[in-house]
Each structure stands twice: as C-alpha cells, then as structure tokens.
Amino acid sequence: MSRKELDHIRIIGALVDGRMTNREAAEKLELCQRQIIRIKKKFLAQGAAGLVHGNRGKNPRHRIGDEVRELVLKAYEEVYYDFNFSHFTECLNEREGIGISRSSVVRILKDEGIRSKKSVRRRTKLHRSRPRKVAAGMLWQTDATSFEWFGKGNGRATLHAYIDDATGIVTGACFTENECMEGYVAALGMGIEGYGLPMAIYSDRHTIFRSPKARARDDEDWIEGVERNEGNERNEGNEAGKGEPLSCFGRGLKLGIGQIFALTPEAKGRVERLWNTIQDRLPGELRLLGVSDITAANEVLPKFIARHNRKFAVKPAEGEDVYVKPEGKVNLDFLFARRGSRKTDHGGMISYGSRRYVPAADDCLGMVKTTVAVRETLTGQIWGVSKGRRIEMKEVERQKRVNSDEASTKKRKSGLVKAHKPAPDHPWRRGGVKRQGYHSTCRDKCTFV
C-alpha cells in the first residue's frame, strides 16, 4: 500500500472506534462527509482491503501487449536501426501494419535503453528568422550537399535540390558525383516541368551561379546601392547586376527567372534545414531498397520527395501561386550551354576545344568569314548561332600525320637506309682532333683543337 492509503486506514479506523467524528475525518482526508460515510461502510464490510483501488494489479484495456512490444523492438534492432523515432513510427504504421503512436514507440525503446540519434542539443540560434514568402513560386532556395548516402564506406555523392520558400515543397532534386551545373539544371528542369517558372532563385555565391570575373569590390562598396533582403541577401538580377559578367547558369536564367545571392548560410535556412531532414531519412530508405549507386538513387528519388512533401509541406499565406507556365517545352540543355564565340573560315569551319567543326547541313550560307556564337550543351553537343539561326555542328576528323622519325626508324630496321657514321676527322668530333679555321677576330687562318 501507498502512504496515502495507510493514512486512510488509520483515520477510518479511528472513526470506526468512535475516536473521531465524520466531520473531523472529512477535514483530515479533505473529502466531503458523504464520501467519508461511504468509505466507512466499505471498511466495515471488507476491512483494509476495501480501501485499495479496485484496478490495483489489473492491466488496463489500452495497454500495449507484450507481443506488440516485441515486434517493435525486433523491427528496430533488425531493420530500422538507423532511423530516428519519428521516421521509425511512420514505417511501422505504413509498412509493418503496426498502428502505434510515436509516444508509445519512444517509451518502448527508452525502456530498453535505446536513444534516438536525433537526441542532440541544438546550439542557440544567433540570427533572426526570415518570414516565408506569401505565395508559392515567389522564391526557390537551392543548394547541394555531399554525403555518404549509401552507407559509411561506400563513397559520397552530391544531392542538388530546390525548395519553395512559401510552402517548403521540394520542387526538384538530383544526384551527381560532385556539385556541378548539370545537377542544378536537372533539378531545375524537374521543378519547371512539375510547377512552372519561379520568380527568383536564391543561392550561395558559388561560381556556378556567380561569374568569377565579376568586378572586384569590397563588400561595403558592393552592398551599397544593391537591393538587400532582410540584411542577408542581395539581388544581382537584371537591374542590380547590370553590366556584370554572368555565369553560364546566370545566362540560362534569362528565360524569366531572377537571381538572388545569399551572404550567409543562415540566410537560406530553408534549404539548409532540408539537408538535416533528408540526410537523416534518405540513407535508411535507400538501404531498405537496396540502392547503392547514383543511377538507381535518381530513379527512386521522386517517390521519396513526393512522400516528403506530403508530410512536411505547409499552406502559403495566399492560396494562388505565381508560377508562370512556359510555352512549350523548355530546352534546358541548350539554354544552359557553355558559351563562346569563334570566327569561321571560307568554308564555314570553326576551331573549338582543339577540334574542328563544320555545319552538319550542307547549307553554309551566312557562315563564311564571320563571327558566330558557339554553344556546348551539357551533353557535349556543339551548336553555332548566327543571325538568329541555330546551326548544328559536326566534328571534322583530322588526318593523322606520319611521324618522320618513326618512318626513318622503320627504314633503318628494314635495311633500306644505312646509318651514317661520321669520319674521325669530322668537325663534329672534338676529341683532340686538330682542325684549321678562321678566328672571328683576327681573320687569320689559325689551328685550334
């Protein structure tokens, strides 16, 4: 019995013996006199056992059975050992068919001494949070992260992604070996195909987004006169960045998307926190599916992103989005191509990358002795742009020259040419042979060694 129950027995016993009145017992136990009379009758009928709660020693109806507890522990230890508690609860409900709440899962695992890998203390925030945009499509944040997605010791891969600032929806994602423009363009294409063109893209100052040839200025001089957003971002779009050299990615965004560059990682915190969630959940999902390479990961990634959006997306302040649907299909491969310029010869041929190219079609009109814009697509195809016309280029194979040294060596080995051996008195031989000649200063015939 508890101490409270022992006090009840002592006071009710004194009441039965006549040493205390009903009012005094009610004041001691902080109960009404009617309740004291009921307890007194129960005590006279059953004794001290009548004061013990009737459910003592019984299992409640809603108690989780031992079989379910064993299934939860077995699933976590054998299959979902690298999942956090919330992710593990979702998998139990969706995949294992075990309907259980997160609090129950946490209680079961903690009773066995299992701690969640997310049970870490976060450092105090040192920056102000920026409010979300009011409508979907106003701003996409983008970044890339390198991580061991296929388990420790199996190599690293880089995930590129775009997230809408207003809703938290991941609009596109793509795996590559390293952070590159191809990964950003592939993820951007997924977002444009699924949602449309956003108003602006918010990124860091990587050379993929910002040309390294930009004018060298101090931060104070550069920030002055440039539109800034909440003190942590700057707009280098068509107005603020006018006259600045653009990267290939920046040139491709001329289809109607603005660019904003973040000065700190905290400024684009939406996409930075996305990595915290995906790095925690995606490796376990890939392990369960048996995915161990980038190609297979890109195939299953859309399903994971769709499930992620259903769970973590929020409603924007305004119901209608501001996406612009492009007219027709956007050729991102050509739009984000590497750009240059070359001058053609009398046959319309150009030299690019130590190789020679001519128009694939026989029509070379307008391509003779003129400067053309050259574009190398992400797939390696070469195009020429002249007078508003796009011309496909094909490579011209160079004829291999016969190496004269190799040819002479073959002739000597075949016996057609005999090796020439200089005579002992040849001028090239300087091994003590006396020879006559004219000195450059005295102009007389001298003998020298």
Short description:
The protein has 449 residues and is α+β, with helices and mostly antiparallel strands.
List keywords for this structure.
13 helices; 4 domains; 449 residues; elongated; single chain
Radius of gyration: 40 Å
> Can you identify the CATH superfamily of the largest domain?
Ribonuclease H-like superfamily/Ribonuclease H
Beta-strand residue fraction: 15-25%
- Which percent range fits the helix content? 25-40%
Query: What number of structural domains do the residues give?
Result: 4
- Gross morphology is elongated
Ranges with pLDDT <50 over ≥5 residues?
215-243
Number of strands: 15
SSE order, one letter for each helix or strand = HHHHHHEEEHEHEEHEHHHEEEEEEHEE
**CATH fold label of the largest domain:** Nucleotidyltransferase, domain 5
Assigned CATH class of the largest domain? Alpha Beta
Oligomer: single chain
Provide mean pLDDT, rounded: 80
What does this structure look like?
This protein is α+β, with helices and mostly antiparallel strands. The protein has four domains: 3-51; 66-111; 140-312, 2-Layer Sandwich (Nucleotidyltransferase, domain 5); 337-396, no CATH class. It contains 13 helices and 15 strands. It has helices spanning 3-16, 22-29, 33-46, 66-78, 85-94, 102-111, 181-194, 219-223, 248-252, 269-289, 294-312, 332-335, 404-414, and strands spanning 140-147, 157-164, 170-176, 200-203, 228-229, 233-235, 258-262, 338-343, 350-352, 355-359, 371-376, 382-386, 389-396, 435-438, 445-448. The longest helix has 21 residues, at 269-289. It starts with a helix and ends with a strand.
